[in-house]
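Can you make up a protein sequence with its backbone structure tokens?

===
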Amino acid sequence: MKLALLTERFYDLVAPDIPNEWDLEEVLEFLIDESDPTCEAILGHIPIIWPVSHSLCLDFLRLLPKTLEHLSLEQIPRWIGITLDHYETDGLRTAQRFMQDDIEQYLSKLKGCGGLSFTSIEKRLLPYIRGIARNDLQIGQAGTSYTDTTSIYVPEELSFSTNNDNNFLLYKYILTFQWGFIACGSFINKAPSEFSHIECDKDTLWLRSFFAGFEEPLLARDIYHSLESIRVQSFLSRELPGLIRAAGTYIFPRFASSITEHPLQALQQTLLTTNANQSRLLDHYLSKKECTQYLLGQASAYDSIKNSVKIFSRIHQTNSEYIPISPLPFQGILKLRAVETARKIREQQMGEQFVDMMAAYLLTLSKKELDILHKQDSGNKGLAESDISMIMDSEFAQTADREKETPILVTINNEQLKLPAELEELTKNFLDEFGHLPTHFCSSAAGKAGQAMIEQDVAGQTEKSSQQTGTLLYDEWDYRRQGYRKNWCSLHFKNLPPVYSPFIQNTLDKYHGLTIRLRHQFEMMRNQERFVKRQREGDDIDFDALVESISDSHAGISASDRLFIRLQRDERDIAVLFLVDMSNSTTGWVNNALKESLVLMAEALEVLGDRYGIYGFSGMRRSRCELFHVKHLSESYGEQVKGRICSIVPREYTRMGAPIRHATSILKEIDAKVRLIITLTDGKPEDYDDYKGKYAIEDTRHALLEAKTADIHPFCITIDHQAKDYMQHMYGPANYIFIDNIRKLPLRIPEIYRVLTS
């Protein structure tokens, strides 16, 4: 078929979107020597591809001669379908790479050889990358590999080798390499001083604004990507040398042959060659010092940007349009918009966490601190939004590598207070990642804390009377005189104001599988079943009783008529109180683990139907021992209770005698077959005054003996490494358990409860 006829036929198929004639001549020329049926078969695919992408359609025709060396005309439609899937899922470049580079992999799939699917190994890869990254990275599948800093995406299938062990190694290397970009800080969001003149919208990643400032943004991006890839591999060579050696043996040789003479692809060659070749290739673009820094992995992300500018001018010496290079499979692509989206989500989540923790902190200020903060003028109505502000050291706020020792202060009513360690750490992490702390966070925290509660705490005149109405006096055992101090300890009852946050849902998501399993296990415990032998009526024959009856008959003894076994279902009749240590030593992981444990227990116990209550305890001195209401025995597990669990935060000291005695008094009034007091603590009893050492241990021991005397079973779960020195003396053998890893606490508590109540 002549070229003119081919062109006219093409125009008929794509009308009215007619391309330039000179664009068609090159791509249609190879059809001149083909038969008319072949030409019609090939041109028949044009109406399918052209409406989706003109550029992709022209690429299809351009690459078709090479493709037909591997595929028959009958196989072309399926190949086109997969190409369009790549286009619609991941864009033009991914579809072009599939047509250009993946024909052999596609053929392997058609032949049914090679190929390892991501879904078949996902459960092996997830713990691997989380162990490497030491955080809860997610993994997923996409057309090509990339990361948005919270998740890493890999191809849905790899046919890199006919040996799936090598395909699995490549999956591991892709994940590790993408994590390397995160660990090395490749996704910059703050302009270095040299580029402070480049501004961007607060919702736009600064790196994307930087690339947009070049005449060829794609070239600037590819230069940066190549340099960062070299730095990442240098980092991995130090951190994971075994993986790099394996990659050098089974992965790199395969991809080294695909590198062309393109100047930028020569940079990529450094990822696949020895240090000597790396040095030679890098030296063409960088100074000796810069080259050494990259080979040692010491160049910073800021250096990469500066070097991008230098290399830009050296490479881009032609007026022709820049054609983006194809990255190596483990390099993936830079999806900066995805990073922006993930960053926005993370900023929102961390912001909500900050507001929740700040609100809880405002509600936990000690009386002494509140007295200092209280303004004496009668016009003060509590803490207004304008009274709360964050004061940060100016040097701290501007330094990229922030010192952890630099304090962050909160100013309330012109008085400065140091933030708790956990809240301070969160604030510093937020500043490290986002460079600023929105001013509305503090005012939101003040509002969440609730003006009514703040006013009540600040108004010292009303606190005393309110405490008197909610106060009980308890004896305290003094081992030195072998007697009680009568009405020695004042126990004040306080309500924890609910703080609504994503903590409950995050916990349920984190332990999703465990929660389902616990609910199932606890549902099976709802009715206790046991076989009762030697019954006159029953569900089955009691063979022991039958044999004994026959023997008695032969011996001339009157035989028993109790020859059956009956399945008896006993309704559970259990009441349990959880006492949660809220002393200041539970700051951080301990407090989070305690709250997560309570959430899992509550979810499981709602299925089981046991009566349970939750109280926190803390305080300072015998005159102010505090018991915090989270859930009464008869209270339903609703949003109010969930909000109180969220507001459990570290407070002051651990005076255990009075809370245990009060828990005993509550359970004495409850008619139940099994009554339990389960204490969750991170250490031994101790208070600010003389409630220490042997005195505190002996008083706690006597409080526990009082519970046992009332037929109430006390049990303690502790994470104190010194627990063996005193716990058995207080609780007795088999009445406590030591958990050596706080992260295991949420997993162990439900199991412990099952054992105690079965």
User: Anything to note?
Assistant: The chain is about 50% helix and 15% strand. Residues 3-111 form one domain. The mean pLDDT is 76. The first strand starts at residue 116 and ends at 117.
